[in-house]
Structure formats: C-alpha cells, structure tokens
Design brief:
- The structure is a single chain.
- By secondary structure, the protein is mainly alpha-helical.
- The chain has a single domain (74-377), classed as TIM Barrel.
- It has 18 helices and 8 strands.
- The protein has helices at residues 6-10, 16-21, 25-35, 42-48, 53-70, 112-124, 144-155, 166-176, 180-190, 205-211, 218-230, 247-264, 281-284, 295-307, 319-322, 324-330, 347-351, 361-370; strands at residues 74-78, 80-83, 129-132, 160-163, 235-241, 267-274, 337-340, 374-377.
- Strands 7-1-8 form a 3-stranded parallel sheet, with helices on one face. Strands 2-3-4 form a 3-stranded parallel sheet, covered by helices on one side. It has a two-stranded parallel ribbon with strand order 5-6.
- Strand 5, helix 12 (247-264) and strand 6 (267-274) form a beta-alpha-beta unit.
- Helix 3 (25-35) runs parallel beside helix 5 (53-70), helix 5 (53-70) crosses helix 14 and helix 9 (180-190) crosses helix 11 (218-230).
- The chain is globular.
- Residues 393-414 have low confidence and may be disordered.
- The structure holds iron/sulfur cluster.
- Iron/sulfur cluster binds at residues 89, 91-93, 96, 98-99, 135-136, 167, 212.
C-alpha cells in the first residue's frame, strides 16, 4: 500500500462493525478483544502486525475508535528544546550516524555555559522542557551530568529537565562507582525531573547484539527504568523499528513495557520511532533493507494503541522521523500526542531524516486542527499548561490526561 493511498483508505466511510465483520476471522477476534478492553496476547500482536489490505484498514479504524473512547479528541504537544550536548561517543551503535570519535573534525561538546545559552533560548521561545541527551563521551568528568543539572536548575528553576537515557545513566553510575538507585537519587536532587526511555531500541539481547553489542542490555535497561520509577522519576518509553527486528520482537518489547507499567505506573507515554537508515553503518553494510514509509508506521501505531490499552494511554507520533503529513495521518490510527517543537534535533538529521529540526507550536496546532482534532499544549508529564487550555473538546474539560499521565501526582509503588 502506497503512502499516497493512505488518506483514501482512512476515509472509507463504512462503520467499524462492518469493517471488522469483513476481516479474517482471527483478525476480527483480536480486534473484538481489544474493543472489549481485554489484554491482547502475544499471538494477537503478531497477527495484527501482519495485517494488510482490508484487515489493516479494520485494525487502523479500531485503533482510532479506541483512542477516541479512551482519550477523546484532544491531541497534545509540548514546547520543548532538544540539547544534544556532545556527539562524542565510543559505543559504536550500528544504527547511529550522530556519534563521532573525539578527534573527528565534526566532534563537538558543549560546555556548561553553552548549554545554559541553549536553555535561555528555550525559555525565550516559551519552552517548558529541555530534553538533554548526548553521546557517551569517555573524557567526561564523572559528575558532569550532575553538574549540568545543578547549573541549569540554579539559573532556570522552573525549567523541566528531561535528560539522560538509561545508557547515559549506566555510564554515569559506572564512572562514579555508585549503584543506580543512589546515582538517580543524586541526579534527582540536582534537578533531574524525568528520564527519556530511549536506548531501548528493541528490548531483545540478540537483536541488540546486532545493533550495538556495547549498548546497555535488556536487564540493565529494565533495572534502571524501574529504579527511576520507584524513586519517583517518570520516564517515557520508546521502540525503534524498521531495521533487523521481526514482528515477534516488537510484540515482546511492547509486552515488556506493558508489564513494567502495570508494576510501576511510571511511563508517561510510548513513542515508536522509525529507524532512519541513510547514513548508518547498518545500511552501508547491507544489513537492512529500507521499507517505504506508510502502512508499516501506521500499523505499528495502531497495534501499540491496542496492545497498551489500559496500561499506557499516550501514544506519541514522530514528525521528525515520518515528516509532518504522515504524522498528521497517524492521528487517525491511534496516536494522541504530537511530540515536541524540539528546536534542535541532530540525531535523526545525522542519520538522514529530512523533516527539519524545529516545528513551531503554531504549525503543530495547525496540523492537529487540519486532522480534525483539538490541540492542547502539555507539560512533560501530561499536565495542562496554564493559559493554553483546549477549546471545544467534547468532555467539557478539554482532554483526558491518560492512565500513564501524572497530572494528578505520581502513581508509583513507593
Ligand atoms: S546511539 Fe548513542 S550510544 Fe549509540 S553510538 Fe549513537 S550516541 Fe553513542
């Protein structure tokens, strides 16, 4: 199915019941299970990730229906700024075109003053969050992450700092000799508010061995994430798809996130991220065959919505990976969050993404409205931003913050 045919497909006016009735029996059974809010099984997930043609249409429309019932018409977004403070990294992930050796001409590391200038720029543009992630720089001072946080919070106490992937946390803890709990506590005391659930890629050690054998392994990723949740530090959750993985890996990954969420309640959202291949080693070595954008992206968003029903309510699309038009379409296949304005985005751009580095809030709002939905600026933890309430939402309050959201306070075990 070609990307340009997707809008026609999604405008099919037959009622959902008729679409499901016309689907293959086993697909229809999986969709009925999702509609009844019963937890989808591994087999359901794999089956739905293979849907094509009419079955795919039934899946996409079911995901849209579930999104409408569970979340409502509001689509959230955040005004934020990425700060990729160093591209120096020794890890050598095969899917990454962002990292450089420290002696490369293009290697750069922002000092604390440069980071503060970037935060000031974010403040000037109305951002409520800075998202800081970088390479694993062997020359970094052991307490550099803590010092960055202290410097930002002492000058910008109201800025939400969303920073340091589990890979960075693992490295930072190792450099200081601290255990993960003590290290995360130290970062929290220094101003860390939330953690990106990146470095997840596919949570399967065999796949990770192909993608990057030095990367944080599954057990450690889970330990760091659940430790953060238990210490009252929420995280996002992510998945990178479209490389060497199989549908079974994706489903197991989503099941793992779902079970963590049932334990801790600490995930704010799920963000599927398409692998951008152009300038990566994986592609140069011929280890991946690029798949055209379109139905595999929308199918994955739809399966995520259904598999995570009752666990993680916020499914975020990625305009950086997909471009704005496909991201807009994904609002009809299960997504309810448009992500952030970003202002600086080097990681996808280095790998060959061409959607740009900055999307102004006005443009995000216009895209959401063009999809027939109601834009709502949010905080990192899906709270409302005062002065930016949604207008016209059918539930009278403008939106529903979602099961994984933390606007009423953390929902952690302790
Ligand atoms: S993905 Fe991160 S850890 Fe891996 S090489 Fe790139 S910057 Fe380094």
């Amino acid at each position: 199915m070609l990307r340009e045919h997707l809008p026609d497909l999604l405008s099919d006016s037959r009622p959902l019941e008729a679409l499901i009735a016309a689907a293959q029996l086993d697909v229809a059974a999986s969709l009925e299970r999702a509609l009844a809010a019963r937890e989808l099984t591994f087999e359901d997930g794999v089956r739905l990730l293979h849907t094509e043609g009419h079955d795919l249409l039934a899946l996409l429309r079911t995901a849209d229906f579930v999104r409408a019932v569970d979340i409502g018409p509001v689509v959230t977004y955040i005004v934020n700024r990425n700060i990729n403070f160093t591209n120096v990294c020794f890890v050598g992930c095969q899917f990454c075109a962002f990292a450089h050796h420290r002696n490369d001409a293009e290697a750069h590391t922002d000092d604390i003053a440069q980071v503060l200038d970037k935060v000031q720029e974010a403040v000037d543009r109305g951002a409520t969050e800075v998202c800081m992630q970088g390479g694993i720089n062997p020359e970094m001072d052991a307490f550099h992450y803590r010092d960055l946080l202290r410097a930002i919070k002492s000058r910008f106490p109201a800025m939400h700092i969303h920073a340091f992937s589990p890979m960075e946390i693992m490295y930072g803890a190792r450099r200081t000799g601290m255990n993960y709990g003590d290290y995360i506590c130290m970062l929290k005391d220094a101003g860390l508010d939330t953690i990106p659930g990146t470095a997840a890629e596919i949570l399967d050690d065999e796949v990770r061995e192909i993608l990057s054998h030095k990367k944080v392994d599954v057990r450690t990723w889970v330990e760091i994430i659940t430790t953060a949740h238990r210490l009252g530090v929420p995280t996002t959750s992510t998945l990178m798809y479209g490389h060497v993985e199989k549908p079974e890996h994706i489903v197991r990954h989503i099941e793992l996130l779902r079970s963590i969420q049932r334990d801790t309640g600490g995930f704010t959202e799920f963000v599927p991220l398409r692998f951008i291949h152009t300038y990566t080693t994986l592609y140069r070595k011929g280890l991946v065959t690029p798949t055209p954008q379109g139905h595999i992206d929308l199918r994955l968003y739809a399966v995520s919505r259904l598999m995570l029903r009752g666990a993680i309510d916020n499914i975020q699309t990625s305009w950086v990976k997909l471009g704005t038009e496909l991201a807009k379409l994904s609002l009809h296949t299960g997504c309810n969050d448009f992500g952030g304005t970003l202002m600086e985005e080097q990681i996808s751009k280095s790998a060959g993404a061409d959607a740009g580095e900055y999307l102004p809030a006005e443009r995000i709002r216009a895209l959401i409205e063009a999809a027939g939905r109601i834009p709502q600026q949010r905080t990192t933890t899906y709270g409302k931003v005062s002065g930016h309430e949604a207008h016209g939402a059918s539930d009278g309050t403008g939106w529903r913050s979602g099961r994984g959201a933390l606007s009423t306070g953390p929902q952690f075990a302790s």
